[in-house]
Amino acid sequence: MNKYLPLLILAIGFFTQCVPPSEEKAMGVHLDYTNPTYQAVYDLKDRNQTDSLLRYFKNKDATMRYMAAIAFASTKDSTAIDSLGSLLSNDIEEEVRIAAAYSLGQIGNIKAQRLLLEGFDRGDTAGVYKNVNAAIMEAIGKCGNRAMLDNLASITTYSIRDTALLTGQAWGIYRFGIRDSVSPAGTAKMLDFATNSKYPTDVRLVGANYLSRAKKIDLANGDSLIAPALAREEDYRVRMVLAIALGKTKTERAANALLYQYNIERDYRVKCNILRALGNFDYALVKTTVYNALSDPNLAVARVGADFFLKHGTAEEAGTYWEIAKQPGRKWEVATAMYAAASKHLPYGFEETRKYLNWEIKRKFENAASPYEKAAALEALGQYGWNYRYIRDAGYPSQFIVVRTASVKALANIASMRNFNSFFGGGITARRELAECFVDAISTGDPGMVAEAAIAMRDSTANFKSVFDSVLVLENALKKLRLPQEIETYNELKQTIEYFKGQKYTAPTKTKFGHKIDWKIISDLKPGTRVNIKTKKGVISLDLLVDSAPGTISNFLELIKDKYYNGKNFHRIEPNFVAQGGCSRGDGYGGPNYAIRSELPYFHYDQEGYVGMASAGNNTESAQFFITHSPAPHLDGNYTIFAKVAEGMDVVHKLEIGDVIEEMTVVEPK
C-alpha cells in the first residue's frame, strides 16, 4: 500500500466537505502590550517556558489563546504540535486558527501535515474561512511531503476573485520550493501564476519569486511565457524576479528580452537583477550592456555590473577591466571590483603585467581613507594566490577591525582556489602556510578573524586536514570566546573543530535567556511614535510595529536611549537586497553583550522598507538591523520584522558601505 495513500484520501476531501459552523460567538483578538497580563504571557515566550504557554490554549480570552499559539512560531517547539492541531481545528477565532496553522508550519515537522489537513475548512464556498485556509496551505509548504506538493499544485477550483486562497496556494508551493522540494506540476502552476496577467499582483509576485529562487526546476520553453510577462508587468517587484527566472531559461530569446528590457527599464532594482540574469548567457552577446552599466549613475547598478565581470569575465579582457578600474571618477566600490576582476582573469604568464597590477592594488590599499575601501582592496588582492603573504602582513596588524576581518576573507578566497595545487606547484608549502595564517587568526581571539578563519579551515576543497592536526589550539580558542555576544563565532569554530575530529555536525549552541523585556518602555510608548535615523544622505523615518515585536522594539529603543547607534556604520550594502548597520565592530561580528529572542509572527517581507533584525540563528539577535530594498520573502519566518520605513526610502536606496548613522532619535507625535 502506498504510504501516502491515507493522506491523499484526506487531501482529496480538502475541497469537498464542509465543517459545520460553531454556535459560539467570536470576540476577536485585541493585542495590548500595555496590559500587564498580556505582558506576563509574552514573557513566557521570551523565557521559552513553552509548557506554561500550553495552558493558555484553553483560556476564555481569545487574545491569550492567540498569543500562546503564535509564540510557537518563534520557539519552534515540536512538543506543541498536537495541541496546535487541536486549536486549529476547534477554535472559533480566525486569528487564533491562523496563528496555530502558521506555528505548525514554522515548526517544520512532517507530523504537522495531517493536522493541517484536518484543520482545513472544506467546502467554504462563502469564503468565510479563506484566510485560515490560505495560512494552512502555506504552512503545508513548510512541512509537507512531496505527495502533498503535487496535490497542492493540482488545485484548480479557485476563481480569480479568490485572491486569499490563490495567494495561499502560491505561498505553499513557494515554501516547498525553497526547501528544494519541487515537481513539474508545482513549477507549471507557478509559471502560470507568475506570467498570467489575469491573476492578482500578490499571486504573480509569489509565483515569480518561486521561479527565481527554487533550484533544479525545469523552465524549458518557459521563455515563451516569461519574456512577454516581463515586458508587460507594471509592478517592479514582479519584474525584478521575472528577470532572474528568465535568465534561468538560458535561451537566445530570453537574452534578447532581458537586453531590451534593460535598455528601457527605469527601476534600478530591476536593472540589478537583469544584470545578474545576464550571467547565464554568452559573454560576447551581453558584455556591451554590462560595460555600460559600470557608468550608471546608480551605484548599485554599477556595482552589480562590476560583480558580473568578476564572476564571468574573460582572460582576453582582463586588461580592459584594469583600464576601467583606473579611470578617474569611478566610485571606489566599482573600481576595486574591477581591479579584482582584472587580477582574477589576468593569465598567469603575464608576470610583468601582474607585477604592476599588484602594485596598483597595494597602493589603493595603502592610500585608501576608508577602512571599507581598504578591505575591498585586500579582497581584490585575494584574487591572486601569491599575494597571501602580503595580505597577512598588511591586514592582520591593521588598526581597523574591518580590514583585519577582510584579510582573512581574502586568504580564504585563495585557499578555495580550484586550481590550488597546480597554481602553487603541488601546493604543500602554500597550504601549510595558509593553515598557519588561519591558526594565527584564530589565536588572536578577534571574533571576525576567528569566524572567517574557522569557515576557511573546514572548506573541503582546501584540504587542510592534510597539513593541520592541532585541534587543541582551536579548542583553547573556543573556550575564550564570550557568550552570548560572540555566539556566531563560537558556532563557526565549534563546527570546524567537529570537522577536524571527524565528528558529525551537531546543532549550534543556543544562547541562554538573559535580557528581559523592559515593558515600561512599551507601556510609555505613544501611538504613532517614530524613530529617525539621521545620515549624511538624509533622514530615514521608521514606523514601529509594536504588536509584532515588542521585545525587539523595547531593546531597540533602549539602545537608542543609550546612544548606542550614534556613529555606527552601515557596514553591509547588498544591491537590491538590504542595507545593514548597527555593528559595534563594523564588520558584522559585533554587538552588545547579550542576545534577545526572535519574534516571528505571521508576516511577509513582501514590500520594500521592512526593518528586520540581523541574526545568526534563532534568538541570537542583539543590535544589528537591516532595511530591505525590495521584497525578500526567503527571509520570512526567520528574521524578526520590527519596523517599516515611513519616510526616507529614497535615502535607503542611496546608502553606501561605510555611511554613518549620525544619530538615532525617538520622535513622539505632536
Q: Any idea of the CATH topology of the domain at 519-667? A: Cyclophilin
- State the end-to-end CA separation: 69 Å
Main β sheet profile = 8 strands, antiparallel
Shape from CA axes?
globular
Low-confidence stretches: 1-6, 15-23
Which helices and strands, and how do they pair?
Elements: H1 5-12, H2 36-46, H3 50-54, H4 62-75, H5 81-90, H6 94-107, H7 112-119, H8 130-143, H9 146-153, H10 163-178, H11 184-195, H12 201-213, H13 223-232, H14 236-249, H15 252-264, H16 268-277, H17 283-293, H18 299-312, H19 318-326, H20 332-345, H21 351-367, H22 371-381, H23 388-395, H24 401-415, H25 420-423, H26 428-443, H27 447-457, H28 471-480, H29 487-501, H30 519-523, E1 530-535, E2 538-544, H31 550-561, E3 570-574, E4 578-581, E5 610-613, E6 625-628, E7 641-647, H32 649-654, E8 663-667
Antiparallel strand pairs: 1-2, 1-8, 2-7, 3-4, 4-6, 5-6, 5-7
Helix pairs in contact: 2-4, 4-6, 5-6, 5-7, 6-7, 6-8, 7-8, 8-10, 9-10, 9-11, 10-12, 11-12, 11-13, 12-14, 13-14, 13-15, 14-16, 15-16, 16-18, 17-18, 18-20, 19-20, 20-21, 20-22, 21-22, 22-24, 23-24, 24-27, 26-27, 27-29, 28-29
